[in-house]
């Protein structure tokens, strides 16, 4: 567990030191305001894992979005030969 101090200002938590997290990693914050300690709150951070169900849900949303695009614009032609031709031009 890593313990850092932060200051809440303008709707943003400003950390006093970096966290051992990767860039754009999703986390879940739980803010615990303790009675009798004005101006103090504890925040517990947990990594927000992608569970099997949410991963399948995300895949279903991507597939549905792909299908909507296909219905609107149809299928796109295979541009692989054009890309190859363009790359060969630079050689």
Structure overview:
The protein is an alpha+beta fold and 91 residues long. It has one domain (1-70). It has two helices and four strands; from the N terminus they run ββββαα. The longest helix is centred in the last third of the chain and has 22 residues, at 52-73. The chain is elongated. The relative contact order is 0.09.
Notable traits:
4 strands, two-stranded antiparallel ribbon, 91 residues, single chain, alpha+beta
Task: Give the gist of this structure.
The protein is of the alpha+beta class and 91 residues long. Helices cover 35% and strands 24% of the residues.
Layout of strands and helices, then pairs:
Elements: E1 6-9, E2 12-15, E3 27-33, E4 41-47, H1 52-73, H2 80-89
Antiparallel strand pairs: 1-2, 3-4
Q: Helical proportion?
A: 25-40%
- The average pLDDT value, as a whole number, equals 78
| Rg, Cα atoms, Å | 24 Å
How does the overall form come out from the CA principal axes? elongated
Structural class: alpha+beta
In spatial order, strands of the major sheet run 1-2
Kindly estimate the percentage of residues that lie in beta strands according to DSSP. Answer: 15-25%
Please tell me the total number of domains: 1
Instruction: Give a quick account of the main beta sheet: strands, pairing sense, barrel closure.
Output: 2 strands, antiparallel
Number of helices: 2
How many strand elements? 4
The SSE order reads: EEEEHH
Low-confidence stretches: none
Distance between the termini: 53 Å
């Amino acid at each position: 567990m890593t313990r850092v101090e932060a200051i809440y200002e303008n709707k943003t938590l400003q950390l006093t030191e970096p966290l051992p997290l990767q860039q754009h990693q999703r986390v879940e914050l739980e803010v615990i305001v303790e009675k009798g300690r004005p101006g103090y709150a504890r925040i517990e951070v947990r990594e927000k894992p992608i569970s099997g169900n949410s991963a399948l849900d995300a895949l279903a949303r991507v597939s549905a979005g792909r299908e909507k695009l296909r219905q609107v614009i149809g299928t796109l032609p295979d541009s692989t030969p054009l890309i190859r031709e363009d790359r060969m031009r630079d050689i």
